[in-house]
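new request in #modeling-help
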Amino acid sequence: GRVIFSGIQPTGIPHLGNYLGALSNWVKLQRNADPEDELFFSIVGWHALTLPQDPQELSASRMNMLATLLAIGIDPKRSVVFHQDDNQCHTELAWILSCVTPIGKLRRMTTWKSRLADSRNAGSDSEVDESLLNAGLFTYPILQAADIMAYRATHIPVGEDQTQHLELSRELANIFNRTFAARKRFFPIPTQVNTPSRRILSLRDPTSKMSKSSPDVQSRILLTDSTSKIKSKIQASVTDSILGVTYDPVNRPGTSNLLTILAACTDESPEEVASRYEGKSHRELKADTADAVEELLKGPREDFERIRNEKGYLTEIAKQGADRARERSSATLKEVRTMVGLS
Ligand code: ATP
């Protein structure tokens, strides 16, 4: 069987982009998994700390994300759902891996390079250096590798933006195996599972992605948005003044974004949906998209509101998940300690 691992940061209420681009794929994976497959879904609080967080908000987001996963259909009996920060095996393994990670590899990470570029642009007049950035931002790809390797995971469903990080995980698995594991392939070399990549764009600026960090709240639909909010945000979404509806992401990003959203809701391709709307107006497309999104989010929204008020239940699920995660990873770590000479 496969060992599938994926993680998501506990940052705010997920938006439609997070849901269609990432979380709904987890549910599909769970549904289509073979009985022998093991699934681990982790809420990765330690990764969230690489950026400044308000402690109270982070604590709330941590629970909200767990409630979200349950609300969208992750089944805690079938899958191991847990908070990364409840399982110290991740940090212990990350430390051990950091001792065999060449710094040059971390410097080549595009995520690091873009952080560096950002801090340069923020521009002090002093010569630019790394001193403004924290070490966690530099080393978190190692922690990601540890997240995966602690469960000796084989299959990692992530977006294309994570390809380089997964490549690092593969290298670290290889380095560890070569250096310490007499029994070759102690760590499996993880494979990227390419989930259908649907990029949902901002409703206000369809040249950029829908994102939680945009200051314009009208640009995104949250999993908790009411029926009327969904309607008004989609009705006010930026499209174009071209007559009729066609799927043309380059020239008609706003219109095409609505088609992408509607297609995701009805499990079709945007082109298929577009062919039904050729002679129709933006108004009709918007109305139908709003209805489809409402239909999609209604169940999860209601479940989310219910579950997030059941604090005792959430605490119990988190505890069970952490116990199951720890049970698996502590077996890995026991062997790792022996292999490196710390037993
Ligand atoms: P940010 O504001 O930093 O961009 P975000 O919540 O919009 O944050 P991430 O936290 O970077 O996005 O991503 C969480 C997951 O959701 C990732 O798997 C990412 O690929 C996916 N995702 C985020 N935004 C979108 C989007 N607009 N369309 C499709 N998938 C998305």
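bot summary: The pocket of adenosine-5'-triphosphate is lined by residues 8-9, 11, 17-18, 21-22, 159, 161, 198-200, 209-213 (CB under 6 Å).
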